[in-house]
Amino acid sequence: MPGHPFSLVLAVARYADQGGQAPKELMTAWDCQRYHCLPKAGGLEDQLVRTMARMRAAQNVYDAMSAYYLADKAGAISIEWMQRNRQVMNIAAYVLTQQAK
């Protein structure tokens, strides 16, 4: 997730693990999916690139960390699981490394 603010990545990962209040970017991404719309009036090219990138990052981190935490709590993380879920593990490794700092 290089290029995305640590605070957003960590906030989304924390939400995926502990719940609470979802970060704004994640809520906006969910609203866009739910209502089949963009955050601002107009087409895709009318949207702020930064907003769209932060929404994508938030959704990607949430999806990956939710899968990781679910598997971890179920005791299902194995070499085979990690090989089948390489993208999840790449994001989880990044997040866990940042959390440890």
Structural features, described:
This protein is mainly α and 101 residues long. The chain has five helices and no strands. Helix 1 runs parallel beside helix 3, helix 2 (24-35) packs across helix 3 (49-73) and helix 3 (49-73) packs across helix 5 (86-100). The longest helix has 25 residues, at 49-73. It is elongated and about 45 Å long. The mean pLDDT is 92.
The whole-angstrom Rg is 15 Å
The total count of strands amounts to 0
Number of helical segments with 4 or more residues: 5
Residue windows where pLDDT falls under 50 for at least 5 positions: none
Major β-sheet annotation: none
Structural class: mainly alpha
Q: Which series of helices and strands comes N to C?
A: HHHHH
Beta strand %: under 5%
Topology overview:
Layout: H1 6-18, H2 24-35, H3 49-73, H4 79-84, H5 86-100
Helix pairs in contact: 1-3, 2-3, 3-5
Short structural description:
With 101 residues, the chain is mainly α. It contains five helices and no strands.
List keywords for this structure.
single chain; 101 residues; mainly alpha
